[in-house]
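Hey, I was hoping to borrow your eyes for a little while. I've dropped the whole record in just underneath, so have a look:

——
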Amino acid sequence: MTRYFKALTAALLLLLTLQSCSLIDDDLSDCESTYSLNYELKMVSNINLQLSEQLQVNTGSLTLATLNNYFSRIIQPTTSEVRLGFYPTDGDAPVYYSRQTQGQRSAFAISIPVDNYRHVAVIGQEDPSIFLRDTTQAATVRLTQLLNDTVDSHNHAILAGTLDMNVMGNTDQSWEVDLYPADASVAVVMKKNPKVVRTRVFLADLATSFTPNDSTWHWDHASLVRTDAVNVTGTDSVSYCGVAFPSRMEQQTTAGRRLTRATDNALWHVIILADLPDGTVTRTVLSLSDALKAGDVRVIRVKLNDDGGVSTSDSNVGASVTLDWKKGGEYNPDI
């Protein structure tokens, strides 16, 4: 009988040892069937090239240098925290990792149970206004900005990538995951006008959240994105820079859509408010029918007139000016 219990105990210990090898652990060296995943992330973005093409200027341009300095630290930060989610296709509990990336490429080793996975990798939670939610399934993972009437420009790039992975035991495997931008960059460049006291610029009708699994953007709430005023070094110009989710790709026909200007056919808008010395406000709405896509860098050059109205020579941008504008009559953002 004693010999029987010893054999049974040995069998149970062996079973527990084998089971422990399927658990998530950065160090599986004690397991008899160890393996590793060599995992590399690659960020796909080139902000300088896109700015050069948009501005159509040489590399010595002061505007190019200013915009590149502003957008590069957001779109291509030197370090970022990435959230890695591995979702078993059979519905088992997902596996999560958080890792710190360095530059455009980062490689590290991870250990993970044998299974078939839908993998979702996201960057963007370092922006305090961006939340990662619904993370229990690959199909529902969503990056959402604050659902306020007016929000700040994203201060950290949002990038995401997905990959179907068949993780096998007793073999080393290597995976490369491309991360693509989920937001876009806009710069409205104008010369300062001494007859205008203050100017504010907002981006309108852009998405408010993003689902990486199927690269879908959502409009959960009517919201404006507040841009940052950046002086163009060595000039009398200022650029209003904003990073936000993209626009729709085509016109929405569903009833109930709330456009900034309900009468136009634009996909997105730029709203410019100019405060004048007499206390009045001039409001200009720029209408853009060319979609703002994820990863885009869009530079819009405008002229700020003495009455606070804004005009542009860009034939692809419509402008509507309202003198002595008073807030109300549309949705009511806190601007």
In short: The two ends are 82 Å apart (CA to CA). The chain has three helices and 23 strands. The CA atoms of residues 13 and 168 lie 24 Å apart.
